[in-house]
Amino acid sequence: MKIRIGILGLGGVGGYFGGLLAKAYVKSDKIEIVFIARGETLKVVSESGLKIISDNEESIVFPDLVSDNPEAIGKLDYLICATKTYDIEDSLLSIKKAITKNTVILPLYNGVDAPERISTLFPDNEVLQGCVYIVSMIAAPGVIKKVGPYEKLFFGSETASIYKMNALQTIFENASIESYLVDAIEETVWEKFIFISALASATSYLNQNIGELLSTESSRKFYVSLLNEITMIAAVKGLDLPNDIVLQTILKLEKTPHDATSSMHRDLMAGRKIELASLTEFVVNEGLKYEIDTPIYKMVFEKLK
Q1: What does this protein do, in the record's words (predicted)?
Q2: Using an 8 Å Cβ cutoff, are 188 and 131 in contact?
Q3: What radius of gyration do the chain's Cα atoms show?
């Protein structure tokens, strides 16, 4: 029996890491990669494959199957979810016939609320926690562009089967994916959330890319204020994060390509729906819940909503 892995969402994250999996296991008799896509992306990838463009090379990959029909997709052993956060419920329910009680679900979304939302839909399933560091985006339907050297994937769970997680880690490693199965996954996911939430909120509110954000004194102060607010919430929640998490986050951002920006800012500039609820409003609501004042996050939310 083949291990069947579904990739739900072929954006910057799902398309890139799904592409690496499809490339590695194209002739495998043990692993089957299924792309779950719709619309123009489904049409293009079905006909021409998925093109991945990085700084140094281009490649075109074909999965074993690309479909949006749960009957055609069939039962999945693992499901990697990488749609936008506002599509979590609709996208998963649209393929629920492909999800059995044994399907292990790995969310790779922007935000930290996905595992709880998915577990509400599928209470019997093992839902992992995960996050990635990568600068990648849809250049055109069926075309993913990745910028810079970052491409790290972290995942784990305190309750899921260690056997199934080790098997997934081996699958990632054999596909040359820089992945880490970590014990303190909640802290790891929150470190990423602090990075992406403050960045998305600042770049979208100020309409600036990373270089402009870091080089303009007022913008940098605005960004640091967001970091201070969100890290205070993480501390009150009892998360064991580094004492210098704000400095570490700034240093991480300084290593990111300065002409890049957040995915939320890109969506905002393109007139698309944005992930405001998971990346900004969530922090405002957590502040209310834990009685932590978040005036800068509130200002961003009020402007962008």
Answers
A1: Catalyzes the NADPH-dependent reduction of ketopantoate into pantoic acid.
A2: yes
A3: 19
- CA-closest candidate to residue 266, choices 109, 131, 112, 137: 137
DSSP H helical segments within 56-161, as ranges?
70-73, 88-93, 114-121
User: Tokens standing for 35?
Assistant: 């792309």
Structure tokens, 90? 């609709």
187-304 CATH choice from 3.20.20.70, 3.40.50.300, 1.10.1040.10, 3.40.470.10: 1.10.1040.10
- Strand-strand pairing, 143-156 and 129-140: antiparallel
Distance, in Å, from the CA atom of 293 to the CA atom of 4, rounded to the nearest integer, reads 46
Predicted structure pTM score: 0.94
Q: Write out pLDDT tens, residues 113-143.
A: 999 999 999 999 999 999 999 999 999 999 9
Of 97, 80, 104, 76, give the one whose Cα is nearest residue 4: 76
Task: Return the structure tokens found at 203.
Answer: 């770049």
CATH superfamily of 3-183: NAD(P)-binding Rossmann-like Domain (3.40.50.720)
